[in-house]
């Protein structure tokens, strides 16, 4: 088998199935990453969404016997929304981060990886392959970096010279000895714009994140968001793009190459107030196909309450008081009490006192008392 010819054929084929960049690396262990993951864990800088088994994360041979190479793929997504909806007084809108516009990227990339698997199997029937996107054991960025897809930026993202960091990543472990590509040189230089732009100081050093402080992480938690971060969330309903929008390499990068990842403005930037009363079924129907829906409706509704406070939206007060008095979820009541305080605590005293009389949850009582005092 001529693997260098097969590699060329794979590259050519990938272009025909909507893969924007492809790179190859060996299946040897990721030793730097291993040390980094251990360190991040020791510092409690991880989000908890990472695969726990560091050996599996860093040694592809443990995931597939006979692993010889890894093919890394990148699919570009837009940075600007077509037909953008406008957030105005009385009709305030929240925002999903760009990686959650359009169809869930896990589906988008898996489809492409499946086609690529089929193509390779057709040529080498005895081949062994294992593909993954995001939820697999491997660190998609570390694979992409080593496969020459992009360099690892100070904002932690893989930055491609062609599409900036607005690319989704996925990979396929193979049993074929493809020639590895060369990693790209780091092009961040003396720039520090992403670190300066991070609203919460989550980027503690170039290329090092304290995920516990990252707004992207916080918008995905199920608990009440610690008060120090609430004012920084703004109108973000899911994820955060600040360290990417600040990046000079991303300036002017806006690729509309795939219909599936185009934003529906009413979903990617939805009205906040109607969000508050959605049932689980209604939420699934409207948002179920986007990646930002993976934690269900509760975090999104909590973030919508925070966003209404950010806009100081007086027209939302009745809805928020209703949540404070009647919502069965303590996190929603606690966040609503805080939001009422932000919007108009003074004129809402009667409602807050009334809610306090019936409230039994300690955190909610604490929050109401804080607003009242
Ligand atoms: C957990 C997770 C998160 C967590 C933690 C993020 C983090 N930086 O670790 C949270 C929820 C915060 C998050 C947020 C986001 N995420 Co996320 N996330 C993941 C996930 C599942 C695992 C990441 C992980 O293992 N992190 C641990 C750290 C230590 O490793 P890493 O950053 O992945 O890898 C780099 C470092 O280890 C570094 N490194 C290794 N050793 C050393 C040593 C030194 C000295 C230095 C400086 C660096 C260094 O090199 C690696 C390659 O760059 C991956 C999918 C996957 N399976 O890999 C997606 C993934 C990283 N996320 C992605 C995206 C798009 C995002 C967001 C942009 C989404 C958003 N808009 O809100 C933000 C960006 C936040 C940020 N600045 O990183 C993409 C990244 C695409 C890209 N172009 O880089 C991924 C790859 C998903 C995908 N398949 O497309 N995410
Ligand atoms: S995603 Fe937002 S909060 Fe997280 S590191 Fe980037 S700028 Fe900071
Ligand atoms: S903002 Fe500057 S330092 Fe940060 S990732 Fe982009 S180029 Fe690198």
TrEMBL record:
Pfam families in the record: Fer4_16, HEAT_2, QueG_DUF1730
EC class: oxidoreductase
Residues given in the record as tRNA binding sites: 220, 222, 280-281, 295, 297
Binding-site residues, [4Fe-4S] cluster 2: 198, 214, 240, 243
InterPro entries found in the cross-reference section: 4Fe4S_Fe-S-bd (IPR017896), 4Fe4S_Fe_S_CS (IPR017900), ARM-like (IPR011989), ARM-type_fold (IPR016024), PBS_lyase_HEAT (IPR004155), QueG (IPR004453), QueG_DUF1730 (IPR013542)
Chief place of localization: cytoplasm
Name of the protein this chain belongs to: Epoxyqueuosine reductase
Biological classification of the source: Bacteria, Bacillati, Bacillota, Bacilli, Bacillales
């Amino acid at each position: 088998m001529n693997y260098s010819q097969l590699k060329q054929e794979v590259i050519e084929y990938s272009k025909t199935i909507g893969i924007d960049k492809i790179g190859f690396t060996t299946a040897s262990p990721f030793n730097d990453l291993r040390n980094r993951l251990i360190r991040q864990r020791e510092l409690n800088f991880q989000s908890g969404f990472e695969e726990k088994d560091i050996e599996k994360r860093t040694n592809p041979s443990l995931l597939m016997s006979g692993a010889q190479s890894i093919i890394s793929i990148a699919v570009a997504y837009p940075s600007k929304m077509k037909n953008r909806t406008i957030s105005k007084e009385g009709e305030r809108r929240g925002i999903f981060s760009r990686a959650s516009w359009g169809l869930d990227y896990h589906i988008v990339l898996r489809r492409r990886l499946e086609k690529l698997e089929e193509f390779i199997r057709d040529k080498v029937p005895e081949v062994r392959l294992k593909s993954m996107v995001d939820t697999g054991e491997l660190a998609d960025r570390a694979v992409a970096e080593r496969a020459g897809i992009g360099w690892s930026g100070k904002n932690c993202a893989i930055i491609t010279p062609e599409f900036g960091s607005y690319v989704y990543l996925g990979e396929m472990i193979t049993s074929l000895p493809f020639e590895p590509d060369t990693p790209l040189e780091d092009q961040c230089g003396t720039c520090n714009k992403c670190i300066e732009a991070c609203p919460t100081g989550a980027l503690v050093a170039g290329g090092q994140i304290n995920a516990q402080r990252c707004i992207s992480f916080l918008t995905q938690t199920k608990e009440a968001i610690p008060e120090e971060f609430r004012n920084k969330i703004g109108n973000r309903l899911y994820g955060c793009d600040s360290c990417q929008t600040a990046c000079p390499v991303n300036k002017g990068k806006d690729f509309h190459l795939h219909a599936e990842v185009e934003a529906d403005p009413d979903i990617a930037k939805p009205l906040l107030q109607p969000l508050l009363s959605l049932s689980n079924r209604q939420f699934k129907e409207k948002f179920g196909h986007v990646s930002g829906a993976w934690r269900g409706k509760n975090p999104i509704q909590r973030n919508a309450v925070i966003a209404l406070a950010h806009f100081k939206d007086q027209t939302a007060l009745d809805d928020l008081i209703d949540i404070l008095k009647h919502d069965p979820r303590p996190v929603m009541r606690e966040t609503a009490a805080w939001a009422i305080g932000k919007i108009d605590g003074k004129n809402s005293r009667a409602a807050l006192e009334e809610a306090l009389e019936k409230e039994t949850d300690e955190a909610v009582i604490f929050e109401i008392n804080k607003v009242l005092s």
